[in-house]
Amino acid sequence: MKLRICHLYPRELNIYADRGNIAVFRQRTGWRGIDCEVVEAGLDEAIDPDAHDLFYLGGGQDRDQALVAPDLVATKSDALHRAADSGAVVLAVCGGYQLAGHGYKATDSSALPGIGLIDADTVAGSDRLIGDLAIEVELDGELQRVVGYENHAGRTRLGPDVQPFGKVLAGAGNDSESGYEGAMRDRVIGTYLHGPLLPKNPWLADRLISWALQRRTGRVPELEPLADELEAKARQVAIGRAGRRSG
Ligand code: GLN
Q1: What is the model's pTM?
Q2: CATH number of this structure's domain 2-246
């Protein structure tokens, strides 16, 4: 068994240590004796939709997104659509989430193209939505709280072909009005949660690992439980902080 990850634009899209999500995939597979291969794909590099089962796109500031957006459309969009349509996992965070949608109208009013992997549109507002964010997520019939940190000017509106990733418990989420956070279709998830996201949410990390392995093997893998006491404490602290933000 091997988890095959493609890390897109590791140099350009890595705000708030989003690269830490990759470290979590490596560590949680390593602890269980599962191989983990991470291939990086930067500007001008084509990707093979069948060579990876999990594609990761981190967050970035507007100027980083401007650098990446045309390249994403030109060299990676078709492959990502093919991968997503055949059950690959895509996790896109903040700036990456916005570019996975139809596009982002940035703070300076420039229009950055997206790849339409997620039916959503983002327009920058006049202020930034910043702070701890807690949401409630249901995946495979299991309800869990997921927590992280948000810092974005973009307001994201979802179209009919996606569902929200979660419901906001505390914080702003997609646009501070809808009560929703992120977007989801098949096994593609877009979210505003940084921090990075996965160290504090091991349940989500394992769900994504499981989906990716399942795409390769056709079977739901048995993932051995891990001692997640530290992760649980970090999560509780973040949930507490998010609660105080809304209160
Ligand atoms: N530039 C985007 C925004 O401000 C994304 C920021 C981010 O990835 N943190 O909305």
Answers
A1: 0.97
A2: 3.40.50.880
